What does this fold into?
Amino acid sequence: MSDTDPLSSSQEPHRLEAARLEKLHKLEALGIDPWGQRFDGHIGIGTARDKCPAEYGTDGETVRVAGRIMLQNDRGKLKFFHIQDATGRIQLMISKKDVPETTWQAIEQLDLGDLVGIDGRLRVTKTGEKTIFVEQLTPLCKSLATPPEKFHGAHDIEMLLRHRYIDMIYNEGVLDRLLKRTRIISSIRATLAGHGYVEAETPVLHAIAGGAAARPFVTHHNALDINLYLRIALELHLKRLMVGGIERVYEIGRVFRNEGIDATHNPEFTMIELYQAYANYEVMMDLCEQITLDASKAAGNESLVVPWGDKTVDLTPPWQRCKYADLFREHAGCDMHDTDAVLAKAKSLHIETAGKHPDVLVNEVFEATVEDALVGPVFVIDYPASMCPLTKRKTSDPSIAERFELFIHGREIANAYTELNDPRLQEETFRTQLAGQAEEDSMAKMDHEFVYALKVGMPPAGGMGIGIDRLVMLLTNTNTIRDVIAFPLLKPE
It folds into this structure.
């Protein structure tokens, strides 16, 4: 094992690897390829368990499975192993008298972590253990790395995050959670397909960072000699597609924000953004409920009441809808339009106030006093228009934008608008937003091409963004974003 291996802090791993290499050479001497070959016709271990007879003394059918050795117990001429795959774990029992001599010699070279193919008959032991009585064993891959519990244990969080495959193999629930993530995403696609949506792909490299307020990652294109930005949102290109005639469009994709890392933020994360022509933010609320309920079923939640830490979340629709201004008044104790009162409240919360626009202070006071109190699911609706440069204003009150954010136990899950499609107002709001922007921040440059697209004519529409990682956290009862992302960003070792 090299010095860069995750578990090489002592000489013990090197000695153990040497022993494994010796067994590998013995397999080769037996004429066996230690790295395996094609192995057709095997079924999942979970399926094999389901086929197992119910009672001791009854022979089940012959099955073929493949998996990784997780436990072994050597009793001389009788050996027991536990192997697992993505669908489950099962016991193997191998008697020397039941297998060819070459196979037995190969079995004696096996270690924890090796991958093997098994042909054998299903039975239940006297103790009720579902077991495959092995008739043929095929080595499929020799593992040269010693399992982590041999010396460090499988609980070194730093090591497990850097080497997620070890985490997936040796810590219960990790692989299952990542597989649930894929089922949740598949469910979202199915829900949207049922509503007539078309999936699109839009550029990851942008000449102008737009669609959200965030600091972008900057890169450089050598041939054109220009700086480009990794996208911080999917919005503006999807709206261009809507202008072009795709009336229901979405994208599930990676977005990048050059900001901090904590329990709910990773600089590279997954979002879905979707847009529906001739809809509004109320249509998006109904769709948000449907997407979440379908995804919860896909994650294996059988009830509408799902666990969240030591609490629960009741997903029974319709979800609560509360106005931003009412929540502000209730929890901050003042009217959001009362500039002096908001300033005083901000100071009492030790929020820096110097040089900040009153509406910025309103938002910071809201975040400090309201968000953590939102149990939900609750749609916070009707935001101050100044905070929403891409959102249509209420006809009855232009100071209010038709926007919602979905909160559950203090965490934002979704954000949606009735989309602004007036190119004159859009250009005006862009200019207002640009004032005072730092050059390195997003939207520090006018996206004239997007404004021109609006001049061509974008239908009135509803749009929504959902943080996939946070949705997966919610539906798998996971407290940190790094546990639902296969490979979260980490500092270099």
About this structure: The mean pLDDT is 91. The first helix runs from residue 12 to 29.
